[in-house]
Structure formats: C-alpha cells, structure tokens
Amino acid sequence: MGWLRRGPRRDGDDAPRDPEFAYFSQREAALFRGRVRQTFAELGLEVTVYADHVVDDKGRRFGLGNLAAVCHQDRRGPRVWPDMIGRHIGLVVRAMDGPSALDTLPPEQIRAQLYPRIVSGDGIDAGAFGYARTVAPGLYEVLALDLPESVMMLTDEALERLGDHAQLRDRALRNLRGLPVEEHETVRDADGMCFEVILGDSFYTASRVLDLDGVVRRVTGLPLGEHGALVALPFRHQLAFHPIRDTSIIPALGAMASFAAAGYEDVPGAISPYVFWWRGGTLTQLSEHDEERGDLRIVVGDDFQELLERLIAQGPDRR
Question: In angstroms, rounded to a whole number, what is the distance separating the alpha carbons of residues 72 and 74?
C-alpha cells in the first residue's frame, strides 16, 4: 500500500541532525525554515532567518521554537507543514499589525481576560518583563491577556497603562481559579505508585500550580495537607501533582521526575523538565540533569530529607 503514501516521510534518526532543533534532520530543518521565510514573503514581509528566530525589516523578532515543535509533533509529517506554518504566521502578523487589544477592549473586559502564566526564562525578555515574579529557578510568573486568536504576555509598559500590578494580579488569579478542569488522569503502576495529571487546551493549565490547593481539592476531593505536594509542569497544557501524606511520595518522586523530563522534550510551550516540592505556594526543585552522566538525578535539601525521614518513621498510608 506504499503507493498511497502522500508527501515526504520523516527522516530517520541516523540522518544528520539540525544543531538548533535536534528533532529535525538538517533536511527537515531547511524545509521548515524555507517555508517560514516563504510564508512571511507571501504576507509582504521580508525576513532574515536565523537558527531559532526570524527578524523582519522593521527589526521585529519572531521566535520559531514553538512553531518548530508543533510541526515536529504532528505525525502527518512535512506534507502538512505549509498549512500549519501559514496559519501560525498569519495569526502572529495580524496580532502585530492590527490595533492593540489594550487600545480597543474596555478596561473591564481586559481585566476579565487576564491570567497569570508560568513561563520559562528562555521565553521572555528580562528587560521587558521586569515585574515578573520568580517562582522557581528559571521559572517566572507574568500576566497574560487571553485573546480569541492569541495570548498577549503583558510587558512592563503594558502594565503601566492598565493600573496597579497587585490589583491586576489578584484579578488574574481569580480568573485562573474559575477555569474548569478540562481533563484528569491518574498515572499508576502495578506496585502502587500513582500521581495525578490535569490536561487541557488552555494555555494556563500548568499555571494552575498557582492555585494548587483549589485544583487538588477539585480533583481529589481532599485538601492539601501541611506537607504540600510534588508537582511537575513540563509544558503549558499539563500539570502533575502528588499530595504528600505518606511514604508513597518515594516512588512518586522518581516517576514524576521521569514524567517531567519526557513531557518537556520537543513540545510547544515547554516550561520545565524537573519535579518540584510545593509547600505553601513555594516551589523547591527536587530533580536536575546530571551533565556528566547525561541522566536525571534527585537532589533534596535538608528540609525535604527531614520530611522523608518523618514519613518513613510514621509508616505507610497514615491518612
């Protein structure tokens, strides 16, 4: 049935890889970047193409990381890339060239569409987001305006026009708490290890770690205890958690570390490949990449080690 195949297949792992997007072969990356340049040209914009971004003749920079990951993830392969790239770039250009939503929307509508968003430091310009709150090493909370075709992350300049940052953040958090849980899955194995995952199309699914108490209560029917929870937010559409109540934390920690690392790879909206300890709204990193060995390792501080020892002494399943 091979004669029914349409379009080029993906290159094998033995093909030379692209230095910037290693999930692409060099041929696929050239195809991708060429199509990006052509699409901009069709919209009347001449761009200079770099490894992970393009710059137009007005000096505007357009990142390519999320778009490349979206193309890579689509199993239909390069034959669908032109349409995907066309839709994405069309949205971006319309958002850039059209009137700003901050100028056209009524103030109350803007406040109703504000959400806090957790992002990787790689995804923001520190000079434009000086107000961003650090939530964990390399992770920041910013405010975003949710629009029908895009999400506008608000810069320092935008916030100056909107009013008091503390009041805006309070409203954004209330909006976040009002979102539905779109999907919920329990990940478990035969030995009893388990943790919970919420998933959804919302760009703020992972950011619901800022409302973890509420999310855990909605999903499990139980409040978080004094010890908090393990959490992982590999990319924007996924949040995993395991409430810490007993020694089940030990297998869950290793499983969630692997889950976070795998979920972070080659996806649009990547946030973090690590697992964290959430306690009272503070995130403490518990896993890291071992540069020498090339794998993951669990790293715990004195406070978490003390907690583990108390849970072991307490015994299993004391809830």
Answer: 6
pTM exceeds 0.85, yes or no: no
Secondary structure element (H or E) that encloses residue 30, with its range: helix 26-42
Beta strands in 147-266 (DSSP E): 151-153, 183-188, 194-199, 229-232, 238-243
Residue entry with tokens 């193409």:
49
Q: 291: helix, coil or strand?
A: coil
Question: d(Cα 119, Cα 142) in Å, to the nearest integer?
Answer: 8
Give which of 232, 147, 148, 224 is closest to 198, Cα–Cα: 232
User: Nearest 5°: phi and psi at 126?
Assistant: -60, -30
Which of 241, 312, 247, 319 lies closest to 283, judged by CA? 241
Residue 195 clears pLDDT 80, i.e. is over it: yes
Distance CA 83, CA 319 (A): 52
DSSP string, 120-167: EGGGS-TTT-TTPEEEETTEEEEEEEE-SS-EEE--HHHHHHH--HHH
59-81 pLDDT, tens digit per residue, is 888 889 889 999 998 889 999 99
CB-based contact 316:248 (threshold 8 Å): yes
- Give the span between the Cα atoms of 81 and 31, in whole angstroms: 9
Count the helices and strands in the chain (H runs, E runs).
Answer: 10, 15
Return the structure tokens found at 318: 């004391």
Crossing angle of helices 26-42 and 65-73, in 10° steps, is 120
